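Below is how a single chain appears once it has passed through the pipeline. First comes the sequence as given, then the structure the pipeline wrote out for it. We keep one example in the README because the format questions we get most often are answered faster by looking than by reading.
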Amino acid sequence: NISGIGWSSATICWMCLIFYLSSLSGHEVSQPFPLKPIPLIGHIVLFSGLAALLLLAIRGWKFEINLRWVITVAMFSSLFGISDEYHQSFVTGRHASIVDVLIDSISSIVTATSMWILVVLLRLAKENGHRHRETVTLYILTLRLPIPISSTYLTPGAFPMGGVSETRKAPLNE
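Resulting structure:
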């Protein structure tokens, strides 16, 4: 399976990048800001990326994305974050941080959960006959809330789980 191999290879390369970055000595890692926003953003990007790539690899191997895979990805990413911090504790000028582990774990959980919710919403919209990309996107972006669209707006009920329903003409100032 080409897709599974490709996403799995990308995931392994991403994990190698994380390992390499945690191998840099304290001198090699510049911290230009005293509040350390760069490392915080780095942890968020790296571990959100890891969770996303893991889910894409699972999907590439033709497995359905479900809550079990989301939990597995979040746990794996969190354990990788713990092992990364442990590895970092042996690097000159670096130390392990429980805060970094928490940031890694939260980033992974939020990304995996968000991707799962997106998959579920797309699946529900497709099953209910909303096959057009614009309709699915509108449903996801509005989060089932009626929004004004020129002089026509959508009302609750048409989409799954009480989302947008029928179209009716009405003034926008109602």
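Residues 144-174 have pLDDT under 50 and may be disordered.

See the next section for the split statistics.
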